[in-house]
Amino acid sequence: MTLTRNRMGRSIMKTRNIHLGIIALLSAWMPFTAKAQDKVEALVGVDLVSGYVWRGQDLGGVSLQPAVSVAYKGFSLEAWGSTGFSKTDADGYDAKEFDLTLGYSAGGFNVSITDYWYNTGAGYFHYGAHNTAHLYEARLGYDFGPVAVNWYTNFAGADGVKENGKRAYSSYISVAAPFKLGGLDWTAEVGATPWETDFYEAGGFAVCDVSLEASKEIRITRSFSLPLFAKVTWNPCSERAYFVAGFGF
């Protein structure tokens, strides 16, 4: 089992514009890869990133992103958060995010539901259709080995809208391919939204994430290694580009 989410999408949800911007996070971040197991597995970790970029969107500056997860026989539950240190305006700092993901994985197949919450709107326990800062997203994916394909759709909460004001059921599809080169682990990814939604600032089908990430474990002692990563992201839809880096514990 691995923690999912950002890592700039290390996928161990989210960046987006209601603030959002999911994960990693976001996550990614990247596919949920827990394997079925006969015993309970639990993991805890934290990333420090130079910027929070999720699905081609800028969700904040330098951020601390903790995660904890537990898994059993393919089922998993993960909590993921992001707290920024950069001042964004006169009112304060980067928005804080708290996500919960319930998932199931068997072989290459995976499915999950994520509850994203941001502290820039209504309080946590506000769930009304027109008075909530929660966003609910379903994901369906398959990891073929050389390529992983995932489809995400917002089905409730503070989703984006179309130009006519109707709920967009904002969706996103990503295709990611890992490979090794020059002693580093790489992941090339392309993500797009299939239809109109202001959630991804798209007027129709639009490619909003073309990215390349490199990572490497730096051995500190015989029993401790520091994972470092850097990621370049281009967003053809918004005509923006980002370069972020970070490390995790």
UniProtKB/TrEMBL annotation:
Domain of life: Bacteria
UniProt name for this protein: FrrB
